[in-house]
């Protein structure tokens, strides 16, 4: 299991507008990481599990992307060298998709409110 891979799948799923798939992927990964953490007690998996839970909160509108950014920067566990650029890129993806698809999961519109 690779948290870096998970982020890329989540990012591409969000950008394609597949919000249900994104949330289902996040939840399935949370179950797998929880199972692995109970066996292995790997700190990286525990922090990634918490970050996945926060992604759900952001998509539900219960947490802002600024709060999510602060969490990502404080508990950085990913293998990207440029931490700031990676976090800003991920936050931009969330902001863009939340705006574009009017996301407040479980409801979302699938197109911009300005689109015809």
Q: Measured on Cα atoms, how large is the radius of gyration?
A: 14 Å
Shape: globular
Task: Outline the biggest β-sheet.
Answer: none
Strand content: under 5%
Q: What is the H/E string?
A: HHHHH
Q: Termini distance?
A: 41 Å
Kindly state the mean pLDDT as a whole number?
86
Helix and strand content put the structural class at mainly alpha
**H/I helix tally:** 5
Proportion in helices: 55-70%
Q: Report low-confidence residues grouped into runs of 5 or more.
A: none
**How many extended strands?**
0
Write the layout of secondary structure elements.
Layout: H1 3-15, H2 19-40, H3 43-60, H4 65-74, H5 83-100
Helix pairs in contact: 1-2, 1-5, 2-3, 3-4, 4-5
Give your account of this protein's structure.
With 116 residues, the chain is mainly alpha-helical. It is 70% helix and 0% strand. It starts with a helix and ends in a 16-residue tail after the last helix.
């Amino acid at each position: 299991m690779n948290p870096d891979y998970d982020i890329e799948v989540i990012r591409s799923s969000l950008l394609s507008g597949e919000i249900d798939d994104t949330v289902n992927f996040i939840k399935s990964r949370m179950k797998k990481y929880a199972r692995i953490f109970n066996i292995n007690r790997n700190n990286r998996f525990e922090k990634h599990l918490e970050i996945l839970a926060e992604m759900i909160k952001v998509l539900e509108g219960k947490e802002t992307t600024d709060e999510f950014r602060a969490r990502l920067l404080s508990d950085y566990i990913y293998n990207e060298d440029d931490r700031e650029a990676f976090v800003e890129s991920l936050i931009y993806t969330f902001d863009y998709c939340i705006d574009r698809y009017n996301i407040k999961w479980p409801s979302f519109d699938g197109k911009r409110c300005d689109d015809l």
